[in-house]
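Sequence only, no structure available. Ideas?
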Amino acid sequence: MKAYMCVICGFIYDEEKGIPEQGIPAGTLWADLPETWKCPDCGATKEEFEMIEI
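Reply:
I predicted one. Tokens follow.
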């Protein structure tokens, strides 16, 4: 599993954890998020995220 960080605000999307409060279950891969998905903190698009190591 991988993690992705928003380069605008620093929000981290962790595939292992998902975002259950947004209906994204744990284990949801980055590639499986819809292209219309936006950062829950600042509204940035998926293009504004970079893969990181945790």
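The chain has a mean pLDDT of 96.
Hope that gets you unstuck.
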